[in-house]
Amino acid sequence: MDWMKKISTDKMLLGVVSLIVVGMSFIYLGKGKIGTEEITPTKSAITSVESPNTKIGVLEKELESKLQTNILMMEGVGKVQVSVNFLTGLKNEYVRNNNVTKRTNKETDKTGGTRETTEVTENNQVVMPNGSSQPVIAIEDRPEIGGVLVIAEGARDPKVREGIHTAVQTLLSIPGSRITVVPMGGA
User: Helix 158-172 to helix 55-72 angle, to the nearest 10 degrees?
Assistant: First the structure.
């Protein structure tokens, strides 16, 4: 019986080690070339997976542009690159036409007994304007911001880095833990 426990423990240990090796190889292979050459990330890698042609992509681009414009006006910042990532998509509530119909029937049989039945019909349709394929929107909420990355030349100075961090936190009303400010690399 002890040899069975030893075999199952050995197999479990081998399985865990195999998983670690596979995970490390994915991490290593995912990094690509690392060396002295300069790595220039593409815009799709910097922002989110969303395409700039979608509403979310457009909102991300607008927000990145506004943040970048404001940060560039700050003293000592230098060049700036801003990336914004949303946790959620757009949230829309549509205008609905709610109709509730209630019908009650009372029946009396020959022996004097009564039976009452109630039928309720609900119709809950989204309101569509005449000639339009888009429903009427009652409320449109912006998506929740997942994180902001600011890469700035002046971020080597702690005062500038703190100023950028505070400005982004104030503009977006998000916790400071969702904001990262780092110095821009390069020669």
Answer: 140
pTM of the entire structure?
Answer: 0.51
Length of the chain: 187
Distance set, CA 140 to CA 43, 91, 130, 170 (Å): 27, 6, 21, 22
Measured at the CA of 131, the angle between CA 129 and CA 132, to 5 degrees, comes to: 60
pLDDT in tens, the chain (187 residues): 555 555 566 666 666 666 676 666 667 666 544 443 333 333 333 333 444 567 788 888 989 999 999 999 999 999 999 999 888 877 878 888 888 888 998 888 888 888 888 988 888 888 888 877 778 877 777 788 989 999 999 999 999 999 999 999 999 999 999 999 999 986 4
DSSP structure string for the chain: -HHHHHHHHHHHHHHHHHHHHHHHHHHHHHH---SSSPP---HHHHS-SS-TTSHHHHHHHHHHHHHHHHHHTSTT--SEEEEEEESS--EEEE-EEEEEEEEEEEEE-TTS-EEEEEEEEEEEEE---TT-SSPPEEEEEPPPEEEEEEEEGGGGSHHHHHHHHHHHHHHHT--GGGEEEEE----
What are the φ/ψ torsions at residue 2 (nearest 5 degrees)? Answer: -65, -35
